[in-house]
Amino acid sequence: MPVTIRDVARASGVHISTVSRTFSAPHLVNPETRVRVLACAEDLGYRPNRAARALITGRTHNIGLIIADIANPFFPPLIKAAESQARHRDYHVFVADTNEDAAAEEELVHALAKQVDGVLLCSPRMSNSLIEQLSREVPLVVVNRQLAGLPCVLMDVGQGARSAIEHLVGLGHREIALLGGPRGSWTSRELRRAASAAARAAGADLTVLGPNPPTESGGLAQAEQVRRAGVTAVLAYNDLMAIGLLEGLDALGVRVPQEVSVVGVDDISLSRLTRPKLTTVATPTAAAGRTAVDMLLQQDTELPRTGRGSGAAVAVGVRRTTAQVMLQTELVIRDSTGPGPYAGRERPGATAAGPGPHRRADPGGPTVAAGDVVAS
Amino acid sequence: MPVTIRDVARASGVHISTVSRTFSAPHLVNPETRVRVLACAEDLGYRPNRAARALITGRTHNIGLIIADIANPFFPPLIKAAESQARHRDYHVFVADTNEDAAAEEELVHALAKQVDGVLLCSPRMSNSLIEQLSREVPLVVVNRQLAGLPCVLMDVGQGARSAIEHLVGLGHREIALLGGPRGSWTSRELRRAASAAARAAGADLTVLGPNPPTESGGLAQAEQVRRAGVTAVLAYNDLMAIGLLEGLDALGVRVPQEVSVVGVDDISLSRLTRPKLTTVATPTAAAGRTAVDMLLQQDTELPRTGRGSGAAVAVGVRRTTAQVMLQTELVIRDSTGPGPYAGRERPGATAAGPGPHRRADPGGPTVAAGDVVAS
DNA sequence: TACTTCACTGCAAAGGTTTGCACAAAGATC
DNA sequence: GATCTTTGTGCAAACCTTTGCAGTGAAGTA
């Protein structure tokens, strides 16, 4: 019943190899023959069997996309962009959800390895060493984690944290809390590092609360702690937690931004819809999805696979090109941040250390410039 | 480099067919041999090549999931549930996004057809006849659309609309607007049909506004119309539109629920986070994803495929089992609905037509009971 | 003892495609 | 007009696995 290359060959009176070439190497076949074959194929509704093709070429034209939690609104735009980009290049995308579980991640990489040309690992919870080990099994591109020797797509949350802290300090806040993210998250560590440094540089105190689950309830659960900590501003690991915190503070009768200012990270679409609208560090999630697919596919076309004539070639020139891309973030100021107790007064560090509220203290952040591609 | 069944055979001193059977028909191989083979396979890190397996068995152990818009928060829970359910049964899921475009849908079904054992079509925008035609190419399960002769997973939005209208009328509203969804949406038609009937039965007027894009901005854009229509309550096609409407009304200075009550459909997680919290008809999206996968896989195991010994068998007993499942919806009352102008007065239709506010008028709705599975 | 049954394993074909090589015919070069 | 390219096509092997059939012993039966 399913129409194969053989049916097309019979219908157009050529050998199957000619049909094959009509699709995979059109320049090798006579234009007249080509149109005839194409017409027959169209007629019969022929579609090449990708499994058979994969078997011999060693490329499946599939990629795997491993996500910590599809239901987390941070990811869908990334998934959407990655799928779209992949499809433009004639790749299909397996999407898999790990429920934030490192063991599930590992198992999924194994399960997918034979079936895809590469895997996008988004916000992994695994250890670095495990990721490196897995990368020997299947080409990997990591999103939201920096790993030497592996292609990574990063969002410059460090810069975002600095902007956020400076924004808050500029508004007159000196006692700031950071709501940490989940254990094992590179983003969370990076955020903490940059926020601490920025707070120190600006003469503010930073209290770290966490780790927390990166969810609304994770933020809600910390509302009481936030109030008790006596801070006047909070930077949350992500918007979901920030929104949960908004809920929690509301329930406690704490007004935002009059009593406490709140800043999120991600700029999920939801953050425009809360009351007050959330001030947040926008991360370019769709761009990250696109970029990650591009990097994976570029790597894929460079490396030869199991095809017939391989063998020695792999051992010789394998030197992988491991680019790392850092995407820019941007502070989006909305209504959840307002003046703090020191509003209008001179900032403690400002006169001594820099040119004013928009000074960019950069105490040892990532050296990769925003938007740059650096091969290593 | 990649380890094949042959490597395992060599290592364990048996023929490759024995290795194959160790995995696909363990009861046919001597327990001692089996453990030896398994040990070798484990050692070498062997994973069967699914492309090769697909080639001969005719089943890929993949399914396709075609979604109108991944970024629409209605879908991620469905995707997540479907993926999880599929994985439990050793299937992987291709996710593809159509951007609400019917042509893209068709193309995707074609593209995926050869590569999957079946496709889940979620909230399709295609015509019924096209869907039926495509279903001859690859097994299909349709979500959110009723099609005779095809397995469908439906949410009882009709019941939901009735509950919503009755809730509003019970609160004293008589002039109600329905914000329609996108053209081609079965859910939108169904909603409209049931809401009209329910409004008529309860003696209220229903104004239909639309069709609209099923997004926040789609709802926002209708705020002005809603005010001009002079209604005191609105039922929106989905939560996203309802939330957009909330925004729009707020911008116009119309207070919710004091001046206008708003009801959404879906109960996306976001609807708990707006101010006021949204009253909505909860649809069981995760259950729909699970159910759809189950139905597809059940159908899949029933129908034989291209395998060696097929042939006549297909022609004989092909009679597809096309179950249709209707999942129950539930009205969740939150803060966006409040008393209307007729609050406290006697309802016009109530005394004449039924037993009171929770009467269930059912003027020609679907005959399939909620939660029932009906083979046709 | 001779025969059947049974459990296990090996053999080889098949599935749809790609691709290196060989070959033929036509055109180019001298 | 003989040789060399070029262009287009066919041939057949290879990719990795599954599976019907046949074969081998050993155990059970008469």
Question: What this model shows, in words?
Answer:
The structure is a homodimer of 376-residue chains. With 376 residues, chain A is an alpha/beta fold. The first copy, chain A, folds into three domains: 5-48, Orthogonal Bundle (434 Repressor (Amino-terminal Domain)), CATH 1.10.260.40; 58-150 and 285-304, Rossmann fold; 157-284 and 328-340, Response regulator (Rossmann fold), CATH 3.40.50. Chain A has helices at residues 5-12, 16-24, 31-44, 50-57, 75-88, 102-113, 128-134, 157-170, 186-202, 216-221, 223-229, 239-251, 285-302, 312-316, 350-353; strands at residues 62-67, 92-97, 119-122, 140-143, 152-155, 175-179, 205-209, 233-236, 261-266, 279-282, 323-327, 330-332, 373-375. In chain A, the strands form two sheets. Chain A has a seven-stranded mixed beta sheet, with helices on both faces. A six-stranded mixed beta sheet of chain A has the order 7-6-8-9-10-12, sandwiched between helices. In chain A, α8 packs parallel to α9 (186-202). The radius of gyration of chain A is 26 Å and the shape is elongated. Chains A and B meet through α4, α5, β2 and α6 of A and α4, α5, β2 and α6 of B. The structure holds a DNA duplex (30 and 30 nucleotides). Chains A, B: Residues 3-57 form the HTH lacI-type domain. Chains A, B: Residues 334-376 are annotated as: Disordered. Chains A, B: It holds the Pfam family Peripla_BP_3.
